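User: Can you recover a sequence for this backbone? Please restate the input before giving your answer.

Assistant: Of course. Working from this structure:
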């Protein structure tokens, strides 16, 4: 595929993301497969697609003084992706970027559009982009410089302060390292690192989880260890959850929102594949992934069932489980680096709706926990109200539970709630809280 086609594909994808709200990561994988792209083309497409979406608000700020009126959507996106390359990529000369943008504009539109695109990009080339430091208001400046919606920056500043918010927003523009989890039933972490290094991966141990390996170069999904079910691709923050649950071999565990099964498999590995794990998810097609994962890792104690977790009481007796995990559907604001379109798609109203769903799932889980059993609530989001608010409301309405310190992890939170920020150690933003059901005679 020629370089021109990569940019046309990027434009098509960016346009569809904006029009339909589809997730860019899913569409990107499809486009790479459908067009049978080489590694180089796929890397450039990924860079342009993610980069342009990631920096959308900054690019719009840069473009604004050069536009007399807002162009139609695809033209606006063509300008954004061309400017992204001009400002952030140094691989391609600016005149080549402009030349290609003009050709795409001619092909998709007409001569008039091509001449407008040419005029705007050449003016920017001549005059340079405006300086974000001229923005007086700090909240607005952070929003524009880091391309996060103003409501979100405001909300994070109120919850976590301006300095933390800016650091987090800046970090959300970086590319995450890949981390993998070692199935230590099959191989030690030390041996796995050696094997990965032999296969050419830049692999090193993580300080965050004793099961984790950081991969600085290469895609470990292509390693022999992955095929043999010795490693799984999982973010380091996600790897903190299963140890907190503290399930031991032989216990009966329920994973209420299990797909695609990363944490279910981790729990099973920590239980030495003994005992019984029931894994629920509301989506049948996603449960296939849980099954595939379990098979690849040779884990036979995972039993999947399609079920809305809010109705789990229909299929399980009260006080059945030693431990229950609610890895809840959430706003996902901790994974903006991986899903850049998410920050523009979410609204404050969404956060409220998600909290209601989470509280309903927790309420359904509560009666199913045995006396002295544990309930862990986790999300991959950074939002005080959604996370801490859910915990506070749950505990206020379920006095039979008490908060429990988080053990078996390297990070010691100040309270019983752990909020991991994406800039803390480079893992996803994550939240974990653990509750224990009181014994009745107390
Ligand atoms: C954060 S993801 C879980 C990730 C999973 N625990 C892992 O580690 O791979 C949340 C999951 O909840 C599922 N879900 C959403 N609403 C649900 C509900 N009412 N009952 C059960 N599952 C639900 C979604 O389909 C999604 O797979």
């Amino acid at each position: 595929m020629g370089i021109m086609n990569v940019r046309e594909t990027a434009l098509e994808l960016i346009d569809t993301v904006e029009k339909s709200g589809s997730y860019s990561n899913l569409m990107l994988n499809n486009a790479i497969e459908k067009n049978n792209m080489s590694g180089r083309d796929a890397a450039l497409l990924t860079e342009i697609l993610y980069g342009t979406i990631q920096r959308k608000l900054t690019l719009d700020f840069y473009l604004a003084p050069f536009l007399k009126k807002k162009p139609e959507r695809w033209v606006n996106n063509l300008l954004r992706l061309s400017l992204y390359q001009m400002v952030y990529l140094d691989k391609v000369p600016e005149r080549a970027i402009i030349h290609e943008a003009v050709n795409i504009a001619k092909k998709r539109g007409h001569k008039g559009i091509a001449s407008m695109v040419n005029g705007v990009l050449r003016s920017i080339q001549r005059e340079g982009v405006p300086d974000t430091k001229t923005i007086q208001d700090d909240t607005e400046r952070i929003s524009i410089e880091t391309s996060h919606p103003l409501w979100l920056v405001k909300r994070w500043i109120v919850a976590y302060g301006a300095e933390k918010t800016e650091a987090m927003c800046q970090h959300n523009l970086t590319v995450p390292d890949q981390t993998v989890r070692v199935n230590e039933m099959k191989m030690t972490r030390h041996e796995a690192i050696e094997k990965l290094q032999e296969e050419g991966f830049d692999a090193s141990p993580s300080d965050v989880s004793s099961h984790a390996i950081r991969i600085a170069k290469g895609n470990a999904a292509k390693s022999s260890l992955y095929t043999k079910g010795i490693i799984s691709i999982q973010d380091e923050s996600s790897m903190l959850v299963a140890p907190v649950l503290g399930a031991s071999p032989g216990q009966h565990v329920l994973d209420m929102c299990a797909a695609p099964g990363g944490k279910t498999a981790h729990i099973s590995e920590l239980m030495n594949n003994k005992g019984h794990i029931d894994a629920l998810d509301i989506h049948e097609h996603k449960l296939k992934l849980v099954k595939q994962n379990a098979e690849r890792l040779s884990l036979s104690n995972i039993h999947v069932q399609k079920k809305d977790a809010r109705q789990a009481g229909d299929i399980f007796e009260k006080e059945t489980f030693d431990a229950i995990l609610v890895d809840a559907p959430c706003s996902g604001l901790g994974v903006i680096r991986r899903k850049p379109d998410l920050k523009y798609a979410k609204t404050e109203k969404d956060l409220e709706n998600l909290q209601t769903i989470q509280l309903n799932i927790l309420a359904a889980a509560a009666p199913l926990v045995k006396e002295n059993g544990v309930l862990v609530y986790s999300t991959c989001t950074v939002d005080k109200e959604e996370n801490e608010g859910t915990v506070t409301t749950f505990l206020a309405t379920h006095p039979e539970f008490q908060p429990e310190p988080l053990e078996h992890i390297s990070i010691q939170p100040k309270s019983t709630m752990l909020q991991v920020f994406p800039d803390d150690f480079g893992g996803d933003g994550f939240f974990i809280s653990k509750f224990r059901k009181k014994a009745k005679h107390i």
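That completes the design. The radius of gyration is 24 Å.
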